[in-house]
Amino acid sequence: MGSLMMTSPKFGINNESKPKKQLRTGSVSKEEPIKVFSGRKWSIWDMGTAGVILGLHLLSLFGPFYCNWAAFWVAFTLYIITGLFGITLSFHRNLSHHSFKLPKWLEYFFAYCGTQALQGHPINWVRTHRYHHQFVDSERDPHSPIEGFWYSHIGWLFDSNTVYQKSGSPNIVLDLENQRFYKFLQNTYILHPIALGVVLYALGGFPFVVWGMGVRVVCNYHVTWLVNSACHVWGNQAWNTGDLSRNNWWVALLAYGEGWHNNHHAFEYSARHGLEWWQIDTTWQLSTEESVDELFFSLSLTTLWQQRETAREVLRWRIAKTGLPVWMLGLGADRLRADMSRLLALLFHQGVLDEQFLQLQQLQDESSPNFVSEVVNIYFHESEKLLRNLRNLLSSIGAKRVRSVCVAFRAASEQNNRAGY
């Protein structure tokens, strides 16, 4: 999560960069650590980003000396609006993953709130996060923890050239690039927090600026950055995701449910991150009020229906990013289909699946004939990740939940058929 502070130039992907020494840590690639503060040339963007972040930290130090209740409540209100609604709900779950739909006016309002968090404009933030999921904990991950805890926490923000070599392609955010509102925020990004600072000063003087721009922004910074760093180092793994993501309860409390990070990497398109009843997920609780069966359906099968509207767009930017012909992307799909067939046959033989689940599979094929061609026809890396997600899904269902899943899937199928999908 997170993005560059300042609007950086589009360096693009540099395929001719010097090869780096590779190590292995489990199933995760590890390259020779990047020198963040020394041994490299700092660009004007890096110095600008470091200056803004350092300045805000210094401003927050005035907090104890300019504290009053009015300033505190202004800061707290902005903290919730920009952090919970702006970053977590809008930038992350809505714009990055399309986990749910909002009316356009509300989508734009929450995105504007996220811009006031001073973590970058939506296009940059979403681009970086999508590349994080695409190449999680590898040499192409923009803020990989294999570079070290502090690099994944904050250091990557000061190395724009390396980040944009990894995630500079605009093709991955065509859904936002094609909307005038997000282009407007990209072109005028820095003006909006400046305007907010002026308004705060006019309303409450220096104390409002200290708390509303200093303390509030710095707290939001580190809460967001802990998801990148702490949630790839400390905690437990409930799912085999093939990466270092962890479920971390104290980060989840601080970050409105984002700390259930291993759950998120297992079901990245799901609007819900806290999957167990005791896993508090404030963002999810604010974004939906579904029944138990609908909740389980949304959790388990998000990519089948909630992502259907954006599947073609997702496929387009993946094709553009790889530069491969469309027919080559089908090679991974063939392997995935074979692996899925073997997995289903094995589970059926072991008695995990029953006739109702087979009916569910048939219903999926009949209701979504283009699902495989839209979502699964991507290169081998994505196919492997989707296969792991399928294993996670099947293990979470269990024989006792098959009937409720079938009921939920049939209801969703009928609803989408009535809607004309």
From TrEMBL:
Assigned keywords, A-Z: Fatty acid biosynthesis, Fatty acid metabolism, Iron, Lipid biosynthesis, Lipid metabolism, Membrane, Oxidoreductase, Transmembrane, Transmembrane helix
Pathway listed: Lipid metabolism
Ranges annotated as spanning the membrane: 44-63, 69-91, 189-213
Gene Ontology cellular-component terms listed: endoplasmic reticulum membrane
Subcellular locations according to the entry: Membrane
Membrane topology: Multi-pass membrane protein
Domain of life: Eukaryota
MF (Gene Ontology): oxidoreductase activity, acting on paired donors, with oxidation of a pair of donors resulting in the reduction of molecular oxygen to two molecules of water
InterPro entries xref list: Acyl-CoA_DS, FA_desaturase_dom, HPT_dom_sf
Pfam family membership, one: FA_desaturase
Region of interest (Disordered), residue spans: 1-26
Cofactor or coenzyme needed: Fe(2+)
Domain Fatty acid desaturase: 69-286
Gene Ontology biological process: phosphorelay signal transduction system; very long-chain fatty acid biosynthetic process
Family indicated by similarity: Belongs to the fatty acid desaturase type 1 family.
Domain comment (free text): The histidine box domains are involved in binding the catalytic metal ions.
Protein name as catalogued: Fatty acid desaturase domain-containing protein
Originating organism: Cannabis sativa (Hemp)
